[in-house]
Amino acid sequence: MKRIKTDILVLGSGIAGLTFAIKTAKKYPERSILVLTKTTEGESNTRYAQGGVAAVWDPEKDNADKHVADTLDAGAGLCKEDIVRIVVEEGPERVRELIEWGARFDKEKNSNEYDLAREGGHSEHRILHYKDLTGWEMQRTLMEEAAQYPNIQVWEHYFALDLITQHHLGRMVIRVTPNIECYGCYALNKQNSEIDTILSRITVLCTGGAGQVYKSTTNPVIATGDGVAMTYRAKGRVENMEFMQFHPTSLYNPVGENPSFLVSEAVRGFGAILKSAEGEEFMHLYDERLSLAPRDIVARAIDSEMKKRGTECMYLDCRHLEKEAFLAHFPTIYDKCMSLGIDPMQHMIPVVPACHYMCGGILVDDFGRSSIQRLYAAGECSSTGLHGANRLASNSLLEAMVFAHRIYLDIQDKLEHLDYQEDVPDWNAEGTMDPPEMVLITQGMKELKDIMSYYVGIVRSNIRSKRALDRLFLLYEETEDLYKTTKISPQLMELRNLITIAYLIARCAAHRRESRGLHFTTDYPDLLPFVENSVL
């Protein structure tokens, strides 16, 4: 076991974590910044983003008011308008910084102008992209820039277990305790199985989403909601967990695949049309924007058509699109389809909805401050108020950069006034042993995903929510018994974190007695006139 001190601790190495680390390292070369990632530096939710980043880029055709209006419309009445305007107005400058660091967004042929795409819910072409690998390109750019600063250390294969607060000093901490403070975290070094105590002046959570709570998800296997679960255990506030976004078009693979392969929304923006197996269009039955309606509408439409027709998927028709242009924009999607014997220029692409993005999360203010002092959050693990009840396509990468910058600004007057909490005890693993059978963990994970997929998926009801909560409680008790008696492993901690996420989703879903945005319940199919966020 080690006791490690760092001025700033960042959990997560995606776009939010590295953007914050780079800005802070450049401003304070004498300050130590430690970035922990539970796998490798390049493995993050950012890397899997295909479509792009939304920003008002062409002032002759687009403006901030249009982008704000599109975001508010998609968010179904729960966006915080002041936050939306902050992100939309500050976003273009954050994108320019990324370009200065080396991001290579696509440009129009024989032109120096960026090739701006349009996606569902957007009224204008404003999506900057790099082929269909935008997230990969942004991650590459950030990793190369971060490597320029010697005061940034990125430790790979470190799994954060718990946030350290007054609770670990023997004090009673409950959800209404005032002035809860974060002093760092306990982290499992996966390479030697030792649990280190990491003390910090400031901690920033950039731990990504929680898509692995469902059977079918476009999220990587690392997306297990660790940051949200740790914050909730530390008695921090979370909100709007019922709003889990299902991407309408993941590639249907009958043999199963984890993560599911994403067929970017940009493909529909490029002109692809949703159809049935018989080649019939159906989106006109659900929304006048057809295949470019917001994601919640399109996902429910596909789910509804599959159930009515008794089919396992619907289809995306790209056959009328120009092949050379399709290949230039979507080479990865084309190659993936071809590997499964599907030629997008000859056959329609089979698609199904899959869990894609967590719109709720750790409740933060306009500078990324959580309800726990000295603890910030940015990116998908946070709930800033930008997304409301449904995220507008390609707003997430923008939000991550804007809030990483705003956290960087907020800590400038705080660092020198904060010190380490020296009285924190080391992790106590006495009385634990190796788990008797790994099947207890792997089967628990399977049961969890089944519960959430069948009972708290795209369409919900009161009885489904109750069954989910009843079954999750049993799974929680079994897993906590295992946690108290066995040695810590990443698999056990991920199961424990996902059970917490599942509980939060199911509980928030049970409390929201209306249908709004991504939350649709058959018991309350209409919107209520009174709108509020669900805070736990």
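the 2nd protein, sequnce then structure:
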Amino acid sequence: MCGICGIVNLIESDPVDRMTIERMTDALAHRGPDDAGCFVKGQAGLGHRRLSIIDLSGGKQPMFNEDRSAAIVFNGEIYNHRDLAAVLTSAGHTFKTRSDTETILHAYEEYGDDCVHQFRGMFGFAIWDQRKRRLLLARDRLGVKPVYYYRNGRFLAFASEIKSLLEIPSIPREVDPEALDLYLSLRYVPGPQTMFKNIFRLQPGHILVADDHGVRTTKYWDIDYPDQEPRSPEYLLERFRELLDESVRLRLLAEVPLGVFLSGGLDSSAILATMSGVAGGERVKTFSVGYQASGPEEESANEFEYARLAAGTFASDHHEYRLNARNFAEFVPDLVRYLDEPLADPSCIPLYFISKLARQHITVVLSGEGADEILAGYGIYGRMLALDRIYGGFGAFGRLAPWIARLTPSEKLRHYVRMCGQPLKTRYQGVTRGFSAEGKLRLVGGNRMKQSDRRLREIFGGYFKTVEKASPLDQMLYVDAKVWLPDDLLIKADKMTMANGIELRVPFLDHKLVEFAATLPYASKVHGKGGKTLLRTAMRGVLPDAIIDRPKKGFPIPIGSWLRTSLRQFTRDYLLARDSACSRYVDRQETARLVAEHEQGGADRSQEIWTLLVFEFWHRHFIENHSGLAAAQRQRPLFEEQLAS
């Protein structure tokens, strides 16, 4: 696991500045504390920071082919690299290391751009082909590893994190207004956009090529939902177990200690169970995070009971971290610095602290991300399908829904009544949201609302159209795999673990397992009120029933309680300050109303407040070129007095 960066000048006679590449590389030091390297020649420059996982003594990057005509920088892991290296050796290629990086380079020589089809793993890599004066930039199929880029008429720059790109003086720091509107709706910015104007994500399953013909991106992989073929439940169960076992086994490839993030939920417990079965009897190290309980909300958010149950079942070497409101608030400035762009998912913070704990014991960690998105684990899928039946069966009600919604006193109920009159492709915008339509209208006004609604329909409508022949459930799973999964879950997972120099691996997102899950019938995903039917069946008799049968809880965080109590003044000091960044973009009075309503218990506005707070700190740090950390330190004595009182 590493950090990569580079510049290719589109004018051949324009040389790359080595000091710029070195600054870009240094900005990624937290991703690769073990080694650093740069290559600069003519119009191209590459930088690399290394976290050593495989071939600890070799594998230094940038790495070159035999005649040094091609150079690569690589972030990720290729789990099938040994088998692929054997094939390439038979084809005449000579290997100097045991590194998977060299396997990618030789695969490029053998297969060209189609080399990406040979890889099973997670990756972001760049290959500079000196002979062809050509850059190949690639991102893995599901988007586990991030790749960002900026281009203008003179150069293309890329990096694992945006902060590396910002080391280039000519790249401006500007808010993209359209991205901000999308962020307010979703709590994250859907790719390829970022909150920075003209800085983009390379989309999952895509490559980018820059050469004499220009810069272009191409999709090389997608999730297909074929017509269902008759297969017995026994076959599906056996094949699922085989693929999950294989995926976990592949992800144990390392020359450093490994462990598991254990929430006590079904997904992470299933990873622990499978890992324990293939780890050869060695005790697995497990890590859980919870909260220092000072009230009922903190206590109810703790999942230690279930995590301990799973750990005890498999006799793991278990470790716990307890987070409090002070930890949470003091980390916010660092949070936005590590994330690069606002992502208002409060679970980022406990994920950071559990990663910090894990780094004291291990270098590689497995987790259960992705199971919900491939096996329909979220409750919203059932609710949306129920609304679909209302929409399809009561046409008259659908036409009257907007009018009925206006007469409904509850904002939440109005939201669902309004959705009854909309088709799925209009209604469904992922498993999470920021501001409701009503709340956003009050916050930003009608004209911006129309623009942002149109853009949301374009993004989600495009994905729905791609799989329009699939079932409604599979359509939603596809949308979440393309937007929510890479642009929220996997971004936060990568950034928070790499902030601590730890590599995260996600067995449920092995592309062969994902492709198999796409062929499953409805009953293998959803049965009754619960999702992930096949996973529950596979784990029955392996995991305790209390874990298998418990309702999905997500990653609970007592942020609502904290924003009313311990973090009340913290919120006011930053969000309602006269010079707040938010007041330049949204209605100040509406922000104050939201804060007051939450404090007084009139409604839970924690998600809206947190969305604005994260943007506030991000803007201070990146746009105003003013360190949010320094600002927090100046305020900290006051904040500590407030906590003490």
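The CA atoms of residues 12 and 468 lie 45 Å apart. The mean pLDDT is 89.
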